Amino acid sequence: MLLRFLGRALQQHGARLFAYCLMDNHYHLFLQTADANLDLVMRDFQGRYVQYFNLAHDRVGPLFQGRYQSPLVQVDAYALQVTRYIHRNPVEAGLIAAAVLQEYRWSSYPSYTGHLPRWPWLDPEWILTQFHQDAAQALKLFVAFHQVPGGPGPPGTVAHTPSVAAPCVP
Question: Considering the entire predicted model, what is its pTM?
Answer without folding.
Answer: 0.82
